Amino acid sequence: MTTAPLTAPPATRSDADWWRQAAVYQIYPRSFADGNGDGIGDLRGIISRIPYLAELGVDAVWLSPFYPSALADGGYDVDHYRDVDPTIGTLEEFDEMVTALHGVGIKLIVDVVPNHSSDRHEWFREALSAPKGSPARERYIFRDGRGEHGEEPPADWTSIFSGPAWTRVPDGQWYLHSFATEQPDFNWKHPEVHEDFLRTLRFWSDRGVDGFRIDVAHGLSKDLGEVLPSSAELKAMPKDGTHPLWDRDDVHEIYAEWRELFDQYEPPRIAVAEAWVETPERRAKYASPEGLGQAFNFDLMEADFDAGHFRDIVADNLAQSAVTGSSTTWVFSNHDGVRHATRYGLPPRAGRPVKQGAQWVAAGGPEDGIDRELGLRRARAATMLELALPGSAYLYQGEELGLHEVAEIPDEQRQDPAFWRTTAGDRGFDGLGRDGCRVPLPWTRSGSSFGFGEGGAHLPQPAWFADFSVEAEDGAAGSTLEMYREALRLRGELQGEESLEWDEALSGGDVLAFERPGGWLSVTNFGAQPVALPVGEVLLASGELEAAADGTSQLPGATTVWLRRSEA
Ligand code: BGC
Fold first, then answer.
1. Please, what's the b/e burial string for 232-248 (b: 16 or more CB within 10 A of its CB; e: otherwise)?
2. Residue limits of the Glycosyl hydrolase family 13 catalytic domain (predicted)?
């Protein structure tokens, strides 16, 4: 890896626009760092690692749910929206964390889960103890069952995690849960649901939170008449804004209300939607400045490592964000998908769909044929390409270490409801569920839970974690951690206007090259064979550059290089 000093001045931008090209680091709190030795990551652990985050050079942290929860779905089953789970910390520690993050210039985005609560939420408990038809049930979606005694669910719908989407309560009624049984869906036609979420958004905004990640943003609004469609009918209905369950046009009325609240703060609070919708045009509605302002784009997460495919995705999404005025987002890994270092090492398989959906890929056991070295090489190249793009980059904890998915978790230790609600061969998510990307991080080569904490780890860590630990990579030339640090540092210095120009002379075949303002050139070789290294001052490369027989430099396969072109 080669680096060169830079003299370009850092980009200036107004504070309200901090998010537009931010590098955001996702923390899955229970697996990041454990400060009190109970095997569960916590706020104390995060506070102790803030110097690490500052050195990494990220602009913001996105914190996955830390609210009181029975962990039926890793914290996405929330008992109280305005509190901290006692195993994770206290509100005072939360405030301390916000102050400490802000002290080193890092913003904080928290996860909000408005589609459903947990079945331990006081409203749901109230609904269960209230009689059928009572107002307390109106905050959720209750229905009578079909069949002579109502013994069949109101409809044959399947939950996203597989299994039935309706569960019967003792008095015979059924409630809807789009995810696990423990996650009853709210009824967003109820004014108290609106009021309560506004209160929640204000509560965290007042505590200094800079923004929100909105879970299942496309699911809140539902239009369910008396007669429910069958699952086959639902599937056949277009998702064009009129579907009874997903991506309804009127969901944006909720976000317009939220925007009013966000804009009362200085700088305005930001929001990013997790919205699984059919087209970039539909996604753009979530990114509207009158609504949430930004939306996740998972296209790269679902793409094969292929120059043409990447180019189309980048071009489409930049065009789309130019229309909305938002900035686009890029993601390769998160807490729901197989880590990209593993995904990119999958063996070529006849009949494999072109789209390698992050959630639909089987990351198998040790003899699964995954080429982990190639996977990591490609992942590093993909990340450097990502960090050179305009827009915000969402990074997932551990990807900066080049971590692979952990496949070797015994079934009985798995926690993901997407694993438990399904049987092998019938899994909605990848074959093994999502625990493999949620294993506590390795901070040291050895010791109790590789430095995660003093009291073990809530998911088993494999022996190979030692070589991917922060301790092993810190200061090690060529390590993935050092590559991320340097790439983020350079990105901060080079980041200017949100524009990109394809370099048509260099692009073609397996090569994708583009230039950012100021002569910052990113070139990725997606193929297996080396290509000639373009002219320019080498700033950073994702792998060692090679020398050809004639002594000229070459860009090897599965490698990205950043160059600075001298201004003409
Ligand atoms: C989150 C998942 C969660 C689901 C239900 C999502 O899309 O990212 O982790 O299981 O919502 O809340």
1. eebeeeebeeebebbbb
2. 26-438
Q: Is 111 near ligand 1, meaning CB less than 6 Å away?
A: no
Determine which one of 59, 93, 196, 215 is catalytic.
215
For ligand 1, whether the C-beta of 520 sits within 6 Å is: no
Residue 287, ligand 1, Cβ within 6 A:
no
Same domain, 367 and 469: yes
DSSP assignment letter at 73: T
148 contact partners, CB below 8 Å, separation of at least 6: none
pTM above 0.90, yes or no: yes
Compute the distance from residue 76 Cα to the ligand 1 centre, in Å.
6
215 part of the active site? yes
Profile the chain (568 residues) by mean pLDDT over runs of 10 residues. 36 74 98 97 98 98 98 97 98 98 98 98 98 96 97 96 94 97 98 98 98 98 94 96 98 98 97 94 94 95 91 94 92 93 73 36 51 94 98 98 90 88 52 88 96 96 97 98 98 95 98 97 97 96 94 96 84
Residue range of the domain that includes 515: 500-564
Half-sphere exposure of 36 (CA within 13 A, CB side): 12
Q: What is the rounded distance in angstroms from the CA atom of residue 268 to the CA atom of residue 288? A: 14
Do 44 and 67 have their domain in common? yes
Residue 202 lies in a domain: no
User: Is 475 found in the same domain as 533?
Assistant: no
State the catalytic residue, choosing from 85, 274, 400, 493. Answer: 274
Ligand 1 pocket check for 76: Cβ under 6 Å:
yes
306 in catalytic set = no
Nearest CA to ligand 1 atom 4: 76
Per residue, the 3-state secondary structure of 213-225, as one string, reads: EECCCCCCCCCCC
Tell me, yes or no, whether 197 lies in a domain: no
